[in-house]
Amino acid sequence: MRYFILFSLLVTLTINLSAQNYDKQIEALLAKMTLDEKIGQLHQVPGDITTGTDVKKDNLLNSIRDGSVGSILSHTNFDNKITMQQVAVKETRLGIPLIFGFDVIHGYKTIFPIPLAQAASWNLSLIEQIERVAATEAAADGQNWTFAPMVDISRDPRWGRSMEGAGEDPYLGSRIAEARIRGIQGRNLNDQATLAACVKHYAGYGFGEAGRDYNSVDMSEQRLREMVLPPFKAAAKADAATFMNAFNTLNGTPASMNKHLITDILRGEWGWKGMIVSDWNSFGETIIHGAAEDDIDASAKCLAAGSDMDMAGGTFQRGLKKALENGRVTQAQIDEAVRRVLRLKFELGLFDDPFKYLNKERNKSQIGKAEYRTLARSAAAQSMVLLKNQNNILPLKATTTKKKVLIVGPYADSRGNKDYMSFWTLGIGFRAYDSTQVVTPAQGLRPALEALGYEVKVAQVGKNGVCDVMAQSTAFEAAKDADIVIACVGEMGYNCGESRSVANIGLPGNQEEWLKTLKINNKPVVMVLFNSRPLTFEWASANLDAIVVAWQPGYETGNGLADVLTGKTNFSGRLPMTFPRNLGQVPLYYNQLRTGRPQEKFGTLWTSGYLDSEVTPAYPFGFGLSYSTVEYSEIRIEKSTIGNAETLTAFVTVSNKGTMAVDETVQCYINDPAADVARPLKELKSFVRVHLEPGDAKPVQFNITPEDRSYWNDAVQFKCDPGKFKLYVGPNSANVKEALFTVTK
Length: 745
Ligand code: NOJ
Fold this sequence. Notes:
The protein is α/β, with parallel strands linked by helices and about 750 residues long. The protein contains 21 helices and 27 strands.
């Protein structure tokens, strides 16, 4: 113990010493910098691809040379990055290195499932490994900083960026945020294979009205703190190096100039010390919002709120100097922002060796390794969710009778449109991902099924996801002599991501009608959905035999799909977002309040419901089937009455009664039935993934701490009350065992 204390002291001392060292170097550098050079460090300029609205690009090398650029974003060309860094360190007065930022959203050159799909794995170590690989590839390609993770909670499938987050739950979102940061930043930012993380979008971006991207957000402080901020807080505590402002207004104030969010909460309450970058021209957009008059006003308001670096818009370049001259900001405020930028560059090791991420050898050896594809395949399989499996039509087992399988649909064997991926695949250029690297469903399934004795036919029908009459008749004819049909439907990859909200969440392009044609001869149909958000498909749910949510699975789409459809890997994915029955139910989420008139039965008047729809979802949060039957014991509570400062301990035993091994995600929720304010019906507080071989029975323990039982009341106090609580454990949010416990004073 004594040695441990000594060791901890030494570690703390070393960390403090190195921080102090940077302080000295930073202050020395700051003392030499002119005002223009300081403002230059706060200016980030787009490189060779564009990921936002048009901005004026001056001659980049000249701007770097005159010290007016501190950072480049979205630049792919490796050799150009070397040239730019050379200009920055060799041809500027102070030789301050550039920092290169990039959107590494679901892989850099090896493309993994979209983040929402990864969240469906509920597998934190898998997610960490994916980020490790993505960071390794990006760092070997000269990037220093990724604009990830996006930790925005989203309850609205219309929002195109739902795909980039971890879904609707703040607890799951927080754990995933931490895992991503561990993967991106590793143990040490200075390491050649790590990047600085950027937690985005701070804050509220996922709650834009009507699901429209960039739209206004208005919410109570309680909802903000309870539903939106937890993953940001978890990320700040996990030492994320940077944050990014959101585009939206929050209760009228644009997030980039929101002092309450940045200075009071993030830097004040949470004590976070990192650097904040704007989103693409979000300082400039404060003027468009109507919350700032001009560049000077916008610069003053954003800097004073606590924001540091200006991405792409050039507002600080045009307005910050004037804002200082007019007395709207102080020199000390500018210096503080510059310090944060310089500190990040020091921490990344860029001052020691500005070319450490620009090593040609590493660029060749660390990108696109075969083992990354193995991880991508496993990730694809682990993120897919089985929603329906009537008569156990899946898995497709070995056959001796040459059964015929038809793989058909707009996403059976599609190439182009970034299908099976998303808009956010930028590592080899904006449009360069033409799906040639993707193993399509047909490419993966054909060999796997032929090896099991099936005869396989493939019919890629429907251009750009649209199933016209031609697609209908081709599919109908092809399905006639099939024994099993695998129908691949969903969304075009290019339509997934930023600025890609939709007003309809049904299957696009007439696909539902097309599915009906396929079913005319009553063949068993397995629907495989390639999607970036929850979609609605009530007819398919009622009439098709099996339904698989495959999301956009990335490079290993077909192989991952083959693994789960043949049972080589059991399904283990669980929905991180509720799937509604219809658009009118949106936003629909499991942790809703009860209302004073909860509807128990459809059609009951004077209850909170609809005349024309049930209130329950099509598939609830946390739902997903497997090929095994896992039984849950009743909950055993160690001590059913505890003090307010005590932790509750509870156990269940889960038993695999099936014949296949399974990874079961055991979920634990609580409800506080009577508090100062109404509390959600259920709140996820813990989950454990348990591996169960056939016949296994394993105990799972849950601890519910006072913090887990606490909530924000209407006076914005975080408190934990005595009283009765409900504890739920089960395989999803709607199917749970229940136990009661009491908390005394
Ligand atoms: C705008 C997006 O909102 C943000 O997430 C992204 O990192 C930047 N553009 C840079 O591409």
